[in-house]
Specification:
The protein has 163 residues and is of the alpha+beta class. Helices cover 37% and strands 31% of the residues.
Length: 163
């Protein structure tokens, strides 16, 4: 987690709340209804932005065999998170089938594919391909390329089972 970004967001939130209270006080005293309406809608929108889910965003993985290092960067609406781990801690790559959430954009029976790197030292998983790919061939190609480069055993396939 990027603690500097979180701290900066907290400071901005507190500053915005102070400005909001001051503006609301001025609006009430002056009788300016535009400022009243602005204050009523500003705080909920600010709170929603604060609670905005991080989402998957864009993932960049840099594998450096000489330095035995994996640099994992995830860019999302909340900023960039960077994680550095030793390549020797990566013990397997997983291809997972997932059923999409029931909505109208997917056809019944469709399966999504995700690709994860799993670490030996912890239960942490790094997402290489988020669950938005319908193409199993593309997902398998990513898995084979990464497992060959890292000299990992054949990938682990977790199949979706109908309940």
């Amino acid at each position: 987690m990027n603690y500097w970004l979180l701290t900066l967001r907290a400071i901005a939130f507190i500053f915005s709340a102070v400005v909001l209270v001051g503006t609301f006080g001025v609006a009430v005293l002056s009788g300016d209804w535009f400022l009243n309406i602005l204050c009523i809608f500003y705080l909920p929108i600010l709170a929603l932005l604060w609670l905005l889910p991080e989402g998957q965003g864009q993932v960049t993985c840099t594998f450096d065999k000489q330095a035995d290092r994996l640099l994992y960067q995830r860019r999302s609406l909340r900023g960039t998170t960077t994680t550095v781990v030793a390549l020797s801690t990566v013990y397997q790559i997983t291809l997972q089938e997932e059923r999409p959430v029931q909505n109208y954009t997917y056809f019944p029976g469709e399966i999504l594919y995700s690709v994860y790197l799993e670490l030996r030292s912890s239960r942490e998983r790094f997402t290489l391909l988020p669950a938005n790919s319908f193409n199993m061939v593309k997902a398998q190609k990513i898995v084979w390329l990464v497992s060959d480069f890292l000299e990992l055993p054949p990938f682990n396939l977790i199949e979706f089972v109908e309940p």
